[in-house]
Amino acid sequence: MEGSLTSVVIVVIAAFLTPLLLHRFKLNVIPVVIGEIIVGLIIGKSGFDLIEKDMWLQTLSTLGFIFLMFLSGVEIDFSAFSGGKKDATLPNGKKEPNRLKVAIVIFIGILILSVLLSYLFVFAGLVDDVFLLTLIISTISLGVVVPTLKDAHIMKTAIGQIILLIAVIADLITMILLTVYVSLTGGGEGNMWLILILFAAGVILYFIAKRFKQKSFFEKLSRGTTQIGTRAVFTLILVLVALSESVGAENILGAFLAGTLVSLLAPNPEMVRQLDSFGYGFLIPIFFVMVGVDLDLWSLFSDKKLLILIPLLIIAFLLSKFIPVFLLKKWYDTKTVVSSAFLLTSTLSLVIAAAKIAERIGAITQEMSGMFILVAVITCIITPILFRKLFPRENLQERKRKVSLVGANQLTLPVTRELSPKLYDVTLYHTKLDKADKQIANSLFKVKEINDYEVVTLEDEGIFASDIIVFMTGDEETNTPLAVEAKNRKVDRVIARIESPQLQEQVRENDVEVFSTLLSTQALLRSLIESPAVMRILTNQENSLFEINMLNNQFEGMTLRKFPFTGDVIFVRIFRGGESIIPHGDTELHINDRLIVTGSTEYVDELKRELEFCEWC
Q: Helix 99-123 to helix 130-138 angle, to the nearest 10 degrees?
């Protein structure tokens, strides 16, 4: 018992120290999960051999694996399949391709090439299993692609969405292929038709969860110590994991299915952050450290056949992605295409899953499993770095936030002119105007006419691809469902004009920000009475209060004393999660901090560009 607890403590300490060491030695280009595997190598069989595997570590590692597959399912953004703005034009002047169609064609090409390359390996006598190798070569790591696109601030560009869609499709298809592989190779433990029971159960649970999610009491029970939403998620995971094992499938399929259901239900972003925090803060690091612990590099390097396989597999990974991705050359320059292909070569979680499962059912040896995992680790270290180095800076998303104002009125019209054109790309949408109103509006403001405020119309105009949407039509009954729909489509910020307290509560439950003329007027009057000096700051166009989101990794952990861009800007307050911090010289800046500053508009704009947008951090 004592020895097993000692091993657990060593693994947990190793997981804790890994991100600190990566930060200390400025190795932020290496994904943390890769760092955890490397640390596992050091303390495991390939290094000091400090770990004794037992039930404790086995259970924690398995739970980490299950939770990793669950969060992989949660990461899938199904709104990406809805398509983007029609007839859009790329910065180079070419017409934008249909993102979904291009992504499907490219993945089909990847899959066909993976099959052909797998047969070449079999004919050469290097491997025996075509199906397994096809699965491993064709998979793409969504967990590497998503953060890399976010760091580059190209997630919502056309090329970013195409890369994301290819990764999402690969993640879904290869998970299904893995299930089929286990069913065919696992010695008849389960029949394929039984897996349909699992998917049917998932569909039923989805509709039950959707029905309960709309109930007001569910939101009330989600607060405080009850946390019914989190309990529901863990119940869903365990039910589907148990069901998947009972029908002869792998437990990770049930976990992945649970994650996709949660993603489809458009959960509260705060709950997703909590799940991420629990998973990536505790269970998942233990799993990745144990992956490194179990890898025996010395036995790999002593086998000449496996040594030959490592570079050949890396070449196969590259070829399977590069050739199909060159279809994008029709619309993009060579550097963009090559860098995209490198990013799509990164692979990790599903390769580890496939290798571990194939080893467990006796389809491959432990050494072969370790070789597949090692190749996956190498690709995840190299390819994101090459993407960052090669991706053309001129193709990066412009340093502007796309803002869509829906509804032209006395509030939105002047705002379109007051928002800084250097920071915001603002478009005002309104239904068809009378001829007289149209002449007045177009003479002073730029208003884009649309037929109606239906979801389909807004989607056709590409409004849901905005960073910020403000629904300011004169009818709160129109604003409310549109705002909720926008949040369901993962729009970063949604603001809606709603006066009714009941409707305000409804949209706030969906993370929509509420603007109310009555409440704003009351707050303004109270502030004029209680804090006239503060109101002068707020209404002063040159020295007002501004909010800046800290997104630039370059300044992560930097103290305000060492911050190089203070100039004539004063840091008034820092909001970090639910915490409000009064800044001083030794206060450190961290990613996702919301900084409240005051100073000249020109200098604040410059500071926003530095902190809110990072080309390569």
A: 140
Quote the CA–CA distance of 554 and 542 in Å, as a whole number: 28
Distance between CA atoms of residues 407 and 360, nearest Å: 59
Q: Strands 543-549 and 513-515, how do they pair?
A: unpaired
**Which amino acid, residue 293?**
V
- Residue 298 tokens read as 């010395």
Handedness of CA 249, 252, 255, 257 (dihedral sign): negative
In this predicted model, what pLDDT tens digit does every residue of 539-597 receive, in sequence order?
Answer: 555 556 778 888 777 777 788 777 776 556 778 788 887 677 888 777 888 888 888 88
Give the integer Cα–Cα distance in Å for 136 and 181.
Answer: 12
What does the alpha-carbon distance between residue 459 and residue 149 come to, in Å, rounded to a whole number?
23
Distance CA 513, CA 487 (A): 10
What six digits make up the tokens of 481?
Answer: 């469902």
CB atoms within 10 A of CB 564: 8
Q: What is the CA radius of gyration of the chain?
A: 26
Decide: 537 and 573 in contact? Cβ < 8 Å. no
- Predicted local confidence at residue 613, as pLDDT: 60
pTM: 0.68
| Dihedral, 28, 31, 37, 43 alpha carbons, nearest 10 | 10
578 class by beta-carbon count within 10 Å (0-12 exposed, 13-18 middle, 19+ buried): exposed
* 288-294 average pLDDT score: 90
Residue with tokens 């233990």: 286
% of the chain with per-residue pLDDT over 90: 16
CA 216 to CA 612: how far, in whole Å? Answer: 36
Strand pairing class (424-431; 447-450): parallel
Residue 597, token pair as written in the block: 């500053």
The neighbour count for residue 155, using CB atoms within 10 Å, is: 19
- Region 283-290: mean pLDDT is 91
Instruction: Give per-residue pLDDT as tens, 236-259.
Output: 888 888 888 877 667 888 888 898
Residues 134 and 136: their CA atoms lie apart, in Å, by 5
The Cα 366–Cα 371 span in angstroms is 9
What is the DSSP annotation of 440-501?
HHHHHS-EEEES---HHHHHHTTGGG-SEEEE--S-HHHHHHHHHHHHHTT-SEEEEE---H
Hey, is 549 helix, strand or coil?
Answer: strand
As given in the structure block, the two tokens for residue 137 are: 């070569």
Q: Could you give the CA distance from residue 334 to residue 339 in angstroms, rounded to a whole number?
A: 8
What does the pLDDT look like over 491-528, one tens digit per residue?
Answer: 888 999 988 888 888 788 778 888 887 777 776 677 66
Is the pLDDT at 433 greater than 70? The verdict is no
Query: If you count them, how many residues does the chain have?
Result: 617
Residue 606 to residue 594: CA distance in whole angstroms:
16
Contacts of 185 (CB under 8 A, 6+ apart): 131, 132, 358, 361, 363
Residue 220 has pLDDT above 50, yes or no: yes
Q: How far apart are CA 557 and CA 566, in angstroms?
A: 16
| pLDDT recorded at residue 135 | 92
Q: Is the pLDDT of residue 43 over 90?
A: yes
